[in-house]
What we know:
Layout: E1 15-17, E2 24-26, H1 27-32, H2 48-55, E3 60-63, H3 81-92, E4 98-105, E5 108-115, H4 126-142, E6 146-152, H5 160-179, E7 184-192, H6 194-197, E8 206-209, H7 220-227, H8 238-243, E9 249-250, H9 256-266, H10 272-277, H11 289-297
Parallel strand pairs: 5-6, 6-7, 7-8, 8-9
Antiparallel strand pairs: 1-2, 3-4, 4-5
Helix pairs in contact: 4-5
Amino acid sequence: MAPTDKVSRVPEGLYIKCPSCTQVIYNKDLTANLGVCPRCAHHFKMTAAERLAMLFDGDYTTHDDGLVSTDPLEFTDTKPYKSRLKSSIAATGGNDAVITATGLLDGIETEIAAMEYTFIGGSMGVVVGEKVTRAIERAIDRRSPVVIVSCSGGARMMEGALSLMQMAKTSAALARLDRAGLPFISVLTDPTTGGVTASFAMLGDLNIAEPKALIGFAGPRVIEQTIKQKLPEGFQRSEFLLDHGMIDMVVDRRELKATIARALRFMGAAPRAAAASAPPSAPSGPAGPGAGAAADGA
């Protein structure tokens, strides 16, 4: 008698194996633990929507959801860029690689931008640059802090120089935020590379990384091929960068929200109710023509 295939009684996707310690984890337990392996603390990737849900206290308002790339260069590699956009939109449910939102983080009204790695590798094109810039400008108008959670392969090559221009655009917006005296916390997750690292991801008043996140400009394989040398163990991982002064903290995801809230309060941000009842503070210096120009520029 020919052997018959046995049908598994376990539903597909009920469990997941940790790539670090090979522990088999019940998916609901992993979700409840914010995507962190309970055995070895390996940090699984999160979607942008999951990031926002983790950081905000409850409901939040998203912005600029309708912005979509127009494929300005009509770019084609192994397939047309328009096809890549269409498939990524269908797969993620979002129109590009970042979600920007306003909500309360431990009672503090905060502008948060969270990048979506499954959308063309979280790459930064014109839409990502525009949405991040608008989020920063909204924060200046509302006198709110900014948190950006980066997860990206860098600038989007399909948009050429237009994508590279977003590095200067977002950095200039952050300079205006700094002149306005408002805090910016950058959260770097695995991976954060290329033009995103070379722009807003490393410009935080406080740069926080998740454990063992790959952070750099060029990847380690490219660097090894260029310099013809073996790189040290853990090169470009968050712990290595912390030891060499490139970032400020490495924080477990389960402690991330509380850490950001403490840092925002230290930087002068206050819960919305407290901020509304506080008397207006005196200006720190004489107002000059430059102050109005900075506000107009925002």
